[in-house]
Model the fold of this input.
Amino acid sequence: MNTLLQETVLDTHGQVALVTGAARRIGRAIALELARHGFDVAVHYNASAADAEETARMVRAAGRRAVVLQAALDDAAAAAALPGRVAEALGRLDILVNNAAVFEPMSLGDFTPAAWNNTLAINLTAPMILSHAAFPLLSTHEHGRIINLVDICVDRPWPDHLAYCASKAGLVTLTQALAKAMAPRVRVNAIAPGAALFPEDYDEAKIKSIIRHVPALRAGTAEDVAVAVGFLASNCNYVTGVILAVDGGRSIAW
Done:
């Protein structure tokens, strides 16, 4: 392998990743993709204990270590303690994936401070608390990484999901600010999915109307998002502060 390629592709075997919201859906796919890249995985969950255990079982079946950790991310103390719990269980922490989020509708007429604060607490404040708590652990290695899950809606916000859109827009800015604040020891990037794993209450007509605007002419999958996370986790050592759209081209074809 030439020197340039060696510098671009990391040896991630035995490194440790914390994936928040890893019990189901995109979080599970990310955990399994990182296991395929050689990471041991801390599977975080809030309430889906059985699903989290299944994710951990699948990680172990891929030949990697896994630990299951519960924490309510709207509890600042619980969020702050999570990276340390990972290091205690698995010996180190190399990558933090801030995937956990809530996707609650909120129109102007539905606005309440309590609902607003709940969404921002989980989608924006928790990633900041986790990143701050993880930084001392991540910066002990040459290639610490944080990957945030944002959304292409930040460029075209939806008026019926006010808090969600605001929280993801804030996370984009936080990603870029932390990339500066944590340089050069820790790289901070984000993945912005488009139409991937629709909410369970979306009917077929609504899904088809969305896919019509996607140049790839299909919805994304959890695996599409996970592959992008795996790419940033194990490659691109000279990339930080980047928001990578994984949306089949939807963000250029609104």
